[in-house]
Amino acid sequence: MDEPIRAAERFPVKYWHWLNDGRIQCDLCPRDCKLHDGQRGACFVRGRAGDTMVLTTYGRSSGFCIDPVEKKPLNQFYPGSRVLSFGTAGCNLACKFCQNWDISKSRSFDSLQDQASPEAIACYAEAHHCTSVAFTYNDPVIFAEYAMDVADACHARGIRTIAVTAGYIHAEPRRDFFAGMDAANVDLKAFTEEFYVKQTGSHLQPVLDTLRYIKHETDVWLEITTLLIPGLNDSSEEIAAMSHWIVRELGTDVPLHFSAFHPDYKLQDVAPTSLERLIAAREIALNAGLHYVYTGNVHYAEGDTTFCPNCNEAVIRRDWYEIEHYHLTAEGHCKNCHMPVAGRFESFAGQFGRQRIPVKMSTA
């Protein structure tokens, strides 16, 4: 039974149309939820109230935290900078392996204790020297209107915006949403339709379309993450096919992060990803021609480090999220061979490091 949509939660949204049978269809993502009055979509946060679609989490968050940008993960987007991160509740995918399931799979908004207007978020980020605001923890696509308003408020104050997303979105809202983003890390959860259907309740092609759109039709800085799950999406053949697709369709300069799985949510019986498998995946992707391939959720300094693709100099050496060595010019050129490294860079004046600072926005 759907939780009733209270009046205070009814923020009118775009991206829907009437059906001949009296229902309305949500046009935000490929789920195309068809709703009677009072029903919520699969994401749980968009629903029908009377004769319109509403977003029930506008201005409400599951929490705010100041993080290093590398935690998003974005390794080539103003390295070392601090980011104000937040999410809401719900998700439009149904990943059995979700590692933020307490937020993304929530059917209750009891955890949405923190409230903040777009302007308040931008002001807080500016006051606490955050160079970016990241929409993360759950997929910002489902709270697109809130994220886009926050992005407008941030840009008015010179604050950048980051979307951490699975990229499961239709063409029109995709165009509007990414027009407000400066960077994105897109979860490419696997490279087979079978995995997407069985493990996420969604489809692969819309995600590939989003990746192509971001890379070729926007100025958004793009990085990709794949969580490697033993026995489900970690075969050498699948990793090679995915890597070659990225090289062919997106280019050699899109950073790819292979992240380690740990048992969670509905995949408690699957073993954690070994460091050896992550290292092997990284080698496959590098051999396919990708210039920047990283490992995550494990301690492996080489997999944390950015190398110059021309001379192989370690231009940003990291240990976890700590930058130990920075060897790029303000323009992002290798100081050894003077070749440009792909990314967004500025003069490096220190780093936020491994800190994680939870903050309470409503009382800040």
How would you characterize this protein structure?
The chain has 364 residues and is of the alpha/beta class. It contains 9 helices and 20 strands. The strands form 5 sheets. Strands 16-15-14-13-12-11-9-8-20 form a 9-stranded mixed β-sheet. α2 (118-127) crosses α3 (144-156) and α7 (236-249) runs parallel beside α8 (275-287). The longest helix is centred in the middle third of the chain and has 14 residues, at 236-249. The chain is globular.
Q: Can you tell me the number of structural domains?
A: 2
Question: What is the global morphology?
Answer: globular
Major sheet strand order: 16-15-14-13-12-11-9-8-20
Measure the end-to-end span: 36 Å
Class from helix and strand fractions: alpha/beta
H/E topology pattern: EEEEEEEEEHEHEHEHEHHEHEHEHEEEE
| Most strands sheet | 9 strands, mixed
CATH topology of the largest domain: TIM Barrel
Q: From the coordinates shown, what is the CATH architecture of the largest domain?
A: Alpha-Beta Barrel
- The CATH homologous superfamily of the largest domain corresponds to Aldolase class I
The average pLDDT value, as a whole number, equals 93
The number of strands is 20
Provide a short characterization of the protein structure:
With 364 residues, the chain is α/β, with parallel strands linked by helices.
Topology diagram in text:
Blueprint: E1 11-12, E2 16-18, E3 24-26, E4 34-35, E5 46-49, E6 52-55, E7 60-61, E8 63-68, E9 82-87, H1 101-104, E10 114-115, H2 118-127, E11 132-135, H3 144-156, E12 160-165, H4 171-178, E13 183-187, H5 193-200, H6 205-217, E14 221-228, H7 236-249, E15 256-260, H8 275-287, E16 293-296, H9 301-304, E17 306-307, E18 314-319, E19 322-326, E20 357-359
Parallel strand pairs: 9-11, 11-12, 12-13, 13-14, 14-15, 15-16
Antiparallel strand pairs: 1-6, 2-3, 3-4, 5-6, 7-10, 8-9, 8-20, 17-18, 18-19
